[in-house]
């Protein structure tokens, strides 16, 4: 039911508003492109791409923002507010926050040098968000390949989609607390890399110290992530699981040696991820403020 021309009559300027806001934002701070991409992933995996992740907590509803995978970690909410305000001023009350996020994530990738794709539109915004769904639907960095495979399969995403989408970690950062166990305990890690990362991520304390997920080109959307995995330099335990003598090794190699194949598969998998259980028709609502229900 989603369609690329959904707003052709009601808001033809939508894509150019988002594009220019993202262009400015990425020029000021390239890491925001990665943060938008992750916001979209965390939206889609929890009850579908319905902007539930954007809702602030209220006295009666504890939402997703403070779920363990998101708390003190997700960023980009202020940029979404600013894009939404611009969209509202041009096209009042017709464009959903869920669609804005889908377009912003695509533009973030593309502006960092990654592929582009057509974003089908027509998603509507949820009236609820769930802390416990966020906890149970988002894969943790400690996950092994079988957990990753089954969590993605439950969203209709294959091993190939899992591997391509994990290539999102070619940009952005992680906190020490997300990779400490990997750099101190894992054995399938390049020793020089582990030593290097330990310098700014102590075994105790400093949880918020950041490191790039792809140290070779942290703000360029390229195939560097897969080359790192082949060298035992995946930052997260879950990253290295994709190249650990398992069923996805061949995909990591293919993407590492053939960045065009990665770009094509990533774009295809993003379209699939973006169509996980959307609210359409008269379901949900078009939120006026992405942080709260109308
Ligand atoms: C396969 C399972 C995945 C796991 C276990 C995982 C886990 C993580 C973790 C732990 C972080 C660091 C968060 C922090 O320390 O604050 C992170 C960052 C990130 N993830 Fe994932 N992720 C996965 C898949 C994905 C997918 C499918 C996407 C998008 C398509 C994605 C996009 C990102 C981005 C862009 C960042 C950097 C965010 C920033 O710099 O603000 N991840 N991920």
From TrEMBL:
The keyword Chloroplast does not apply. Coiled coil: none annotated. InterPro entries: Haem_peroxidase (IPR002016), Peroxidase_pln (IPR000823), Peroxidases_AS (IPR019794), Peroxidases_heam-ligand_BS (IPR019793), Secretory_peroxidase (IPR033905). Belongs to the peroxidase family. Ascorbate peroxidase subfamily. The active site is at 42 (proton acceptor). The keyword Oxidoreductase applies. Disulfide bonds join 11-91, 44-49, 97-290, 176-201. Its EC number is 1.11.1.7. GO terms for molecular function: heme binding; lactoperoxidase activity; metal ion binding. Binds 2 calcium ions per subunit. Binds 1 heme b (iron(II)-protoporphyrin IX) group per subunit. This is Peroxidase 1. Heme b binds at residue 169. Ca(2+) 2 binds at residues 170, 214, 222. Ca(2+) 1 binds at residues 43, 46, 48, 50, 52, 64. Its cofactor is Ca(2+); heme b. One of its GO terms (biological process) is hydrogen peroxide catabolic process. Substrate binds at residue 139. Keywords: Calcium, Disulfide bond, Glycoprotein, Heme, Hydrogen peroxide, Iron, Metal-binding, Oxidoreductase, Peroxidase, Pyrrolidone carboxylic acid, Signal. CDD domains: secretory_peroxidase. The record marks 38 as: Transition state stabilizer. Residues 1-294 form the Plant heme peroxidase family profile domain. It catalyses: 2 a phenolic donor + H2O2 = 2 a phenolic radical donor + 2 H2O.
